[in-house]
Design the sequence.
């Protein structure tokens, strides 16, 4: 016997599996963080007059077209209006402004991107949500994709076609 008698068949490539790759929906743009503790007295006390003066002196144009996460690295109790005030100054420049860390920013960007997807091409199909990624895909993005795909797909799996974990199968 030789290999011509038993041709190698790529069953994964020939399967009806549809792959959904979250990396394909990675929101483009530079990410930045801004720690407002730098404008607090001793990093902990918000003195409104000093805070406003520091904000007025800050160069907001440096955040042009960036996705920005606002946070406070100290344990200071910051009133909501402080973040709102910072937002009024940076939002004319930044594409996105959220309160939180980089992971919260990525989650927000993915939530926005996934809300714009037409999921109908996955209708009644076996779908695998690709697991490995080179880009920072937050766990929330996997949850939101699962929720959306579960509404249309016949079945859902996670991982790679050769070693997928079954997640959901539509009831007959």
Sequence:
């Amino acid at each position: 016997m030789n290999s011509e008698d038993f041709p190698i068949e790529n069953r994964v490539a020939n399967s009806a599996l549809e792959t959904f790759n979250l990396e394909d929906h990675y929101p483009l743009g530079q990410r930045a963080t801004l720690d407002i503790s730098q404008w607090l007295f001793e990093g902990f006390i918000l003195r409104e007059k000093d805070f406003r003066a520091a904000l007025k002196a800050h160069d907001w144009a440096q955040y042009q077209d960036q996705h920005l996460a606002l946070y406070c690295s100290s344990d200071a109790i910051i009133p909501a209006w402080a973040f709102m005030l910072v937002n009024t100054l940076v939002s004319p420049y930044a594409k996105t402004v959220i309160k939180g860390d980089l992971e919260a920013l990525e989650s927000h960007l993915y939530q926005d991107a996934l809300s714009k997807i037409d999921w109908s091409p996955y209708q009644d199909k076996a779908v695998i949500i690709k697991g490995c990624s080179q880009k920072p895909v937050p766990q929330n993005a996997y949850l939101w994709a699962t929720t959306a795909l579960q509404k249309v797909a016949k079945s859902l799996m996670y991982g790679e076609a050769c070693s997928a974990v079954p997640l959901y199968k539509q009831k007959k």
